[in-house]
């Protein structure tokens, strides 16, 4: 995910995907993390290792928060409002 728009598109894709499929809540974060590619996937592996995160204990909301913190700066949303 090179641009903030890529991250937003990824979030939309995941919401649409989960809207079509009936995953249990505790499986959504695992499915979402499996869809990461390239640098985002490497970043996620590093985060899991550094924070000792077990995906089965993580919620989708927590994962999304971490992803937004990494890839979507507050300035992006300020610029988007303008």
SSE series:
HHHHH
Q: What portion of residues is helical?
A: over 70%
Shape summary: globular
Q: Tell me the Rg in angstroms.
A: 13 Å
**Count of DSSP helices?**
5
Number of domains: 1
> How does the major sheet shape up?
none
Task: List the uncertain runs.
Answer: none
Structural class: mainly alpha
* Number of separate strands: 0
Mean pLDDT: 85
Secondary structure topology:
Elements (H helix, E strand, L loop, with lengths): L3 H17 L4 H10 L3 H14 L8 H12 L2 H8 L1
List keywords for this structure.
82 residues; mainly alpha; 5 helices; 0% strand; globular
Description of the structure:
By secondary structure, this protein is mainly alpha-helical. It has one domain (4-77). 74% of the residues lie in helices and 0% in strands. It has helices spanning 4-20, 25-34, 38-51, 60-71, 74-81. The longest helix has 17 residues, at 4-20. The radius of gyration is 13 Å and the shape is globular. The mean pLDDT is 85.
Brief description of this entry?
The chain contains five helices and no strands.
């Amino acid at each position: 995910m090179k641009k903030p728009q890529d991250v937003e598109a990824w979030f939309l894709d995941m919401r649409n995907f989960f809207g079509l499929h009936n995953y249990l809540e505790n499986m959504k974060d695992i499915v979402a993390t499996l869809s990461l590619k390239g640098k985002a996937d490497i970043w996620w592996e590093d985060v899991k290792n550094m924070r000792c995160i077990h995906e089965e204990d993580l919620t989708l909301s927590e994962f999304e928060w971490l992803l937004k913190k990494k890839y979507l700066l507050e300035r992006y949303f300020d610029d988007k409002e303008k």
